[in-house]
Write a structure and sequence with these properties.
- The chain is mostly helical.
- The protein is about 75% helix and about 0% strand.
- The protein has one domain.
- The chain contains two helices and no strands.
């Protein structure tokens, strides 16, 4: 979302961020279910995975 910081105002970035995060959450849930993880366990896997990926992308782009 840093790419759109100058082009979009806060409300537009908020709406786009919600839509993108919902799409990512849905896709990850779908593939975790295909791999055999029960829906009740998604709460324990998806948030740390998203945070880990975000940290990796942040430090990769920072270099």
């Amino acid at each position: 979302m840093y790419i759109f910081n100058d082009k979009l105002n806060f409300f537009e970035r908020l709406v786009v961020g919600i839509a993108v995060s919902s799409a990512i959450l849905g896709i990850l849930s779908y593939y975790l279910a295909l791999f055999g993880f029960h829906v009740n366990n998604h709460v324990y896997f998806i948030p740390p995975l998203i945070v880990l990926i975000s940290i990796i992308v942040y430090f990769y782009k920072k270099k």
